[in-house]
């Protein structure tokens, strides 16, 4: 099968982490035998890229015969469906559809289209097949027939490793106790301020000396396992998520998780001893962090997430392609 992946999320020089889960999915599909090309609309580097994207898509479809256009994000789905030249598969991983998009838009007016639930539902109606990364997304998206396939996990890359070696590779202080914040502080929906308040509270209570909040700010994806293996806990304080890959990556490294109740995080971590889903307030977050740091050991999470491997994910996506082509 010839597949064109049309996305505005993909790693590039200035942002090596951006859309790394899309790149991993492409690699998995290629390993599964698909001929996959990527058309990346780099709006992060130049907003004008969005305006020329319909012409770039048209040119790509004229250059080569594809069986399916597989889109990521509402914008690309909208462009691909006007006019619709080929069957469209849309992977939906925009957790804001289940969050307070009105409040988010007030804080960031430039994101009015990004956060628009109406646009997402419109694109969902235009797509021939929809893949959601978590079951709960089907209802707010208006596609009860969607197929649930969480983004794949590179189980070879994300694995437990020697902490001393990881510390040395990153040049960090072996005497510090690191709490890993899996995003950039500049992303308001990730609520770094809440994470910092919880860690500051922990420090003021004297629960733990030497604690430091470590951020995955523009970190290349291949280095993320190092950060996870030097840290004692991953802290997610997001306002919303769809099905955060970083949670499964942490579990694959046997890294304890403390998270607000977003996306499908509760389903993943609640059954695991040493992980906590908490209210989005500094006090309960600090309490959970304190329990993890006091315990001072890794968790048994890896076996629970191996089923999300890139290989298994690719097989499920290929099944969606085949069903669509044969229908």
Q: What's the alpha carbon Rg, rounded to whole Å?
A: 20 Å
* Total domains: 2
Low-confidence stretches: none
The biggest sheet amounts to: 6 strands, parallel
User: First CA to last CA: what distance?
Assistant: 15 Å
Reading off the top of the CATH hierarchy, the class of the largest domain is best stated as: Alpha Beta
* Order of adjacent strands in the largest pleated sheet: 2-1-3-4-5-6
Number of helices: 14
CATH fold description of the largest domain: Rossmann fold
| Morphology | elongated
Structural class: alpha/beta
What percent strand? 15-25%
Number of strands: 11
Percent of residues in helices? 40-55%
Q: Going by CATH, what is the homologous superfamily of the largest domain? A: Glycogen Phosphorylase B
Mean pLDDT value: 93
Order of helices and strands: EHEHEHEHHEHEHEHEHEHEHEHHH
What is the level-2 CATH architecture name of the largest domain?
3-Layer(aba) Sandwich
């Amino acid at each position: 099968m010839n597949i064109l992946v049309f996305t505005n999320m993909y790693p590039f020089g200035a942002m090596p982490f951006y859309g790394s889960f899309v790149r991993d999915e492409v690699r998995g599909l290629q390993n599964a035998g698909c001929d996959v090309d990527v058309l990346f609309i780099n709006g992060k580097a130049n907003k004008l890229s969005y305006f020329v994207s319909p012409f770039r898509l048209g040119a790509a479809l004229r250059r080569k015969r594809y069986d399916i256009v597989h889109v990521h994000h509402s914008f690309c789905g909208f462009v691909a469906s006007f006019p619709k030249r080929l069957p469209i598969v849309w992977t939906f991983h925009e957790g804001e559809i289940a969050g307070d998009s009105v409040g988010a838009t007030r804080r960031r007016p430039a994101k009015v289209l990004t956060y628009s639930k109406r646009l997402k539902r419109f694109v969902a109606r235009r797509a021939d097949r929809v893949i959601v990364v978590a079951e709960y997304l089907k209802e707010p998206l208006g596609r009860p027939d969607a197929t649930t396939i969480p983004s794949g996990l590179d189980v070879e890359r994300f694995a437990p490793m020697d902490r001393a070696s990881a510390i040395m590779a990153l040049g960090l202080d072996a005497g510090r106790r690191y709490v890993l914040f899996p995003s950039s502080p500049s992303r308001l929906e990730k609520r770094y301020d809440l994470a910092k308040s919880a860690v500051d509270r922990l420090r003021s209570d004297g629960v733990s000396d030497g604690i430091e909040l470590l951020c995955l700010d523009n970190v290349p994806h291949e280095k993320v396992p190092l950060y996870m293996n030097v840290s004692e806990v991953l802290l997610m304080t997001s306002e919303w998520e769809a099905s955060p890959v970083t949670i499964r990556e942490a579990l694959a490294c046997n890294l304890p998780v403390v998270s607000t109740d977003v996306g499908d995080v509760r389903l993943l971590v609640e059954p695991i001893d040493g992980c906590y889903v908490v209210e989005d307030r500094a006090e309960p977050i600090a309490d959970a962090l304190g329990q993890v740091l006091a315990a001072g050991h890794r968790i048994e999470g890896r076996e629970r997430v191996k089923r999300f491997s890139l290989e298994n994910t690719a097989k499920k996506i290929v099944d969606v392609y085949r069903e669509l082509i044969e229908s």
